[in-house]
Structures are given as structure tokens and as C-alpha cells.
Amino acid sequence: MSAPAAATPTTYDSLTVDIADHVAEVVLRGPGKGNAMGPAFWREMPVLFSALDRDPAVRAIIIRGAGGHFSYGLDLAGMVMAGDLGPLLTGAPLAGPRARLLDVIGDMQQACDRVAACRKPIVAAITGRCIGGGLDLIAACDVRLCSQNASFSLREVKLAIVADIGSLQRLPYIIGEGHTRELALTGKDIDAARALRIGLCTEVYPDEAALLAAARQTAREIADNPPLAVQGVKQVMAFGQDKSVADGLRYAATWNAAFLHSKDLAEAMAAFIEKRKPVFTGE
To answer: Domain 15-223 - what CATH class?
Structure first.
């Protein structure tokens, strides 16, 4: 069987991606104002993250926004103009259009689902506004860092929408049920200081430059670790979210029984004995 094809940087309408030294940097670029998530975003994200997941050259990923903001969330006007939602929201409430709307929402959910399912750890670097779909996206990431000017809002309720792209399902594991309910029921904004207090972000940096430096350093530290062990940590933790401790322990033991014996394990031991930095290959 041939090795899986590597994901190579290509042209997208809603984002750019660059891969260097085992780290992929994904930048949200609109085309909607504030990197709002229009048709191209929902179409391109599942494709990109499926490719990054399978790319042996990628060990860690950074997601950030261009232009001083992470994302304003759903580009509702863009979606309506493109015909993705307009007829389904304004037409007669018949079974056919309702079924098609269900399919559209399911397709949109894949954008964040593929991020959450990606075996490579993902660091979200958040500056400026992170609204609605932006919050859905960072909730699917593994590490969240932000700048001092960042603000967050689960805004859907103010638009008469129940958030349906992942925040209501993923945020309780990150910030708890109480904080998630408050954000979802009020649609209020919270600042970086509050995000840090409730655990939405783990660090706050004074400006975007410091944030990006920290995000790249974090991704570098992840990428320098043994790839299979890093992916194992992510998958074992994901498995255990809705399981008992005993089930989680059994899964972790099974993972190590399958993957512990590796060239990277031998390299880690040799580097420790020889007092040098290890070089891991993922084998």
C-alpha cells in the first residue's frame, strides 16, 4: 500500500495554509468582513483538515484570523446570496425544504467536526472578535491562546438561532455547563480576562505579535515530540470524554499495547542516556 499523499499548500477562497518544519499555519481570510464564514469556508475546511490529518509532514497546526480578528462568525448575507440558505429559510415550511436544511446544517457541521477529529493537535490563536461560528471553531481546537483585545460571544440566540455547529456540545467539556449556558442563553460578549478565568483560553498575551510568537512556540514544542505519542494523547482524551475512568484506562492501555514499541521510544531512551535532544520520526 502506498503512503498517503501529503497535503500541499494550494489556493483557497476563505483561507491560506503554509506548512514548514512540521507545522501548518491556517489563516482565515474571509472573504466576508472580519473573516466571516461564508460558503467557501464551509466547503473548504473539511477538505483541508482531512488532508492535514493524513499529511505525514504535519505534526501540529495553528489556526488564526487575518486582519486583526479571528472571525465574526457566520456570513449569513453571503450564505443567502449564494443560495445556500435563503430558499430554505424563507420558503413554505414543507418537509422537503426542512430535510434539505437539515442536510445543509450537517454539511456545515463538518467544518468544525473535521477540526475536532484531526489527529494533529491544533492551537487556536485568537485576536479581536471571535463570534458565533468562530467560537464553534476554537472549541474544536486543542489549545486556545488569545491576545488582550480578544472578545468572545456565542451570539446565535440573538439571531433567533440555536447554536448548531458544536459550541453547545464541546464547550461544556472546556468551561463547564454553567459558563456555557450563560454564554449561550445571553449571547453576551466576554473579554480576554473572563475567557482566561473560565478556562476558555489558557494564556492571554499583550498584543497580536506576542500571541503569534507564543502560538508558534507552542506548536513547535508539540511538533518536536514523538508524533504517534502526541496523537495518542489526543485520541485517548477524546475517547474518555463520555466514558468511565475504567473504560478510559482500558483504551489508553490498548493504545500503548499497539503503539508503544517504536523507533521513537528507542530514540527517546538513547537521547536521554546520551544527554542530547531527541529527533523523532513518527516510526
So the answer is: alpha beta
